């Protein structure tokens, strides 16, 4: 096992150049989630105090949110429109690049119990209605359901999901699954310790605590791994890894 860790560590250092991002380790302590946008900014979400903090590429704090409920951050790839969903509050919130709230959508008056949300753009959101075991496409501009897809599969233990090109990509406790809109299972694979799923153009990425895996429509391929990482993420510059309360950016050499 030690030999495997050594091999993985040196393969990582050989393939990637490493740069430490100067964010104070106290700021990084207790980090639950890590995000990097396409402009090099870093976002830290802490579950213990429900804070969401934005830093520039040099580690300077640009903004901070203190929330009253736990929120799941969908993505920060477009920092002009950051989407969050709270299962506890049953609401979707949108924030601008300064972390100012620009829109809030309350779901409890319209739906049963929404367990997960994927905002497709500034008009449509896909939602898992756990009470009816249904996938909904919701136009929140007109407050109307555009389409509804009953699913025979259980939505229990869904960690994350997204919809792209008429396919539903679902991340469960220890599984990655792909369905069509009829609810037919197209692909399934065991994947342990996965936390979130993201799309970049036509590529689907699965983020675990120590590695990032890419799905090409047929199979899974590991694109980055660091054996000592607590959290990993990526942006257009490279791969981010939180290691012992220090943050590093790895670029391809």
TrEMBL record:
This is 6-bladed beta-propeller. Gene3D superfamilies: TolB, C-terminal domain. It comes from the Bacteria. InterPro entries: 6-blade_b-propeller_TolB-like (IPR011042).
């Amino acid at each position: 096992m030690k030999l495997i860790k050594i091999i993985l560590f040196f393969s990582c250092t050989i393939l990637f150049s490493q740069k430490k991002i100067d964010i104070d380790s106290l700021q990084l302590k207790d980090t639950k989630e890590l995000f990097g946008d396409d402009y090099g900014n870093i976002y830290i979400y802490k579950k213990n105090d429900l804070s969401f903090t934005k830093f520039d590429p040099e580690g300077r704090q640009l903004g901070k949110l203190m929330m009253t409920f736990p929120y799941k951050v969908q993505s920060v790839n477009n920092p002009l429109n950051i989407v969050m969903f709270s299962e506890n509050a049953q609401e979707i919130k949108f924030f601008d690049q300064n972390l100012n709230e620009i829109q809030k959508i309350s779901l409890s008056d319209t739906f049963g119990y929404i367990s997960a949300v994927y905002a497709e753009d500034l008009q449509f959101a896909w939602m898992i209605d756990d009470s009816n075991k249904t996938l909904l496409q919701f136009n929140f501009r007109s407050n109307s359901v555009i389409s509804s897809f009953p699913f025979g599969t259980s939505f229990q233990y869904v960690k994350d999901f997204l919809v792209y090109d008429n396919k539903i990509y679902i991340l469960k406790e220890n599984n990655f699954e792909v369905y069509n809109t009829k609810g037919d299972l197209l692909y399934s694979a065991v994947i342990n310790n996965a936390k979130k799923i993201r799309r970049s153009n036509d590529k689907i990425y699965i983020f675990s605590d120590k590695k990032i895996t890419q799905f090409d429509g047929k199979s899974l391929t590991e694109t980055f791994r660091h054996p000592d990482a607590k959290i990993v993420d990526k942006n257009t510059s490279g791969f981010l890894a939180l290691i012992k309360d220090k943050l590093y950016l790895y670029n391809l050499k």
